[in-house]
Amino acid sequence: MAAAQTRIAATAVTDGAVISATGLTKRYPPDVTALAGVSLTVRPGEFVAVLGPSGAGKTTLFRCLTGLTPPDDGSVSIDGREIRRRHVFRGTRGDVALIFQQFNLIRRLTAIENVLVGRLARVATWRVLVRRFARADRQLALRCLDTVGLLDRAYTRADQLSGGQQQRVAIARALAQDATVILADEPVASLDPESAATVLECLRAAVAAGVAVVASLHQVEFARVYADRIVALRAGRIVEDAPAAQIDERTLELIYSKNGGAQA
Amino acid sequence: MATGAGAYPEPVIPWLSKSRLRLVAVLVLLAAFYSASWHLAKVDPAKLLSGLPRMASWTGKAWPPAMDELPVLLQRTGETIAMAAIGTTAAALLALPLSVLAARNVTPSMAVYYPARWFLNALRGVDSFVFALLFVAAVGLGPFAGVLGIALHTWGSTAKLWAEAIENIPLGPLEGAAVTGASRLKVLAFALLPDVAPSMVSVGLFWWEFNVRASTVLGVVGAGGIGQELKNSMDLLLFPRLLTILVLILVTVTVIDQTSAWLRRRLE
Fold first, then answer.
1. Of the candidates B186, B191, B194, which has its C-beta nearest A125's C-beta?
2. pTM for this prediction
3. Domain that holds residue A6
4. Which of A19, A237, B24, B55 has the largest count of CB atoms under 10 Å?
């Protein structure tokens, strides 16, 4: 993809982390500490899986990374720019794409129209109002759908697609957006194992194009197969940060034991 | 399980309990309210009984309906439908931006939301009949006053219902579109509109249908349409003409109701 190549060139110049979070702390009064000084750096073209039992702080970490929840302490910067509190419509940034557990596609639009949402920020307003996109944008959207293997469903309405297909459309939208970072909170939690594997393969395709992906996962096996690196959270702290290949039974015990046993 | 009765304890309510007293109090209040209303509304069944024969004799005199002025009456009916169509469409165009401001989940700020809501409630609170009365004084007799009256009242009603439709849509898809960095206008036009369009069109059709019914009486205050002919015929006691007009209204309203209902079903 031409867009992806220019992106790699651009990130190579910054030579370093595309996400850097330092000392993230978030307390929910009276006595819940969701995050207790979490620091994390992610490089371009890296797939980081976040593991941890329920209540370990995974969702809070994602909300801090996206700016949906401001941390009590610590900071997040993406591409060298600090993330501030984000309202639905305010301070949004085109270089970060979010993937949601519930897909969040626009149900009544076709797959290709949902992918074109990724172009909205760069398209002239009159084109959006009359729903007439330039040929170059339409071609790019089709190419992104091809990347996630859904070219044949381009003109199908989003609510006619299966859950796994909808999540792949969401990934295609992130690709069309030219994002440098994809943050995915539980992207496969509501999918069957087969669809989940396909979705994770699509995220790998994005990683191959130079995007940094951070995804929280419930299934350790998926993390081992698809991620480059595994970050394990427990009680708001990072208890393990290692290449996926190094994760063994001992580390899993460290993450999950004494906390109601291992969770699938 | 069919052991002896009384095996399970049940709550015992004393004869003179708090809940019983409350029920009696409510019943007494309701009785007082209806008896006061009965007197204030001057309900008098005897008058109805003595008036019925007069109504019956009018009905007898109304047959056969007068057909000589049918072209004029048809034109007046057309006027009524046109008033409703123009008034409702103008209201819809005005309601579109205001419904966004008055929807809690997408409004730019609460400082805009509350004034928008108050404004809409004020428009809604005044009936199109009352607005038309005011506009007859301002722009003169005729259907244009009716159009303005319909437009103002419908503006408030439509925008309020649309705002509620917007508030009921899931925010996730909007969030998904907004985080790509697109501006609010683009997100609303591209991501919100397709979601709410069917219910918006449905509400619009309902108000058009409602306004056709409403504008049959607007003529009574001089705001044009078939209602004007209705009032004239009543004033001059031209019963055959009155019957023609009533039948025309009934047919028109039924056809519009059915068409609108059919269109709204197609939107599901």
1. B186
2. 0.74
3. 1-90+218-264
4. A19
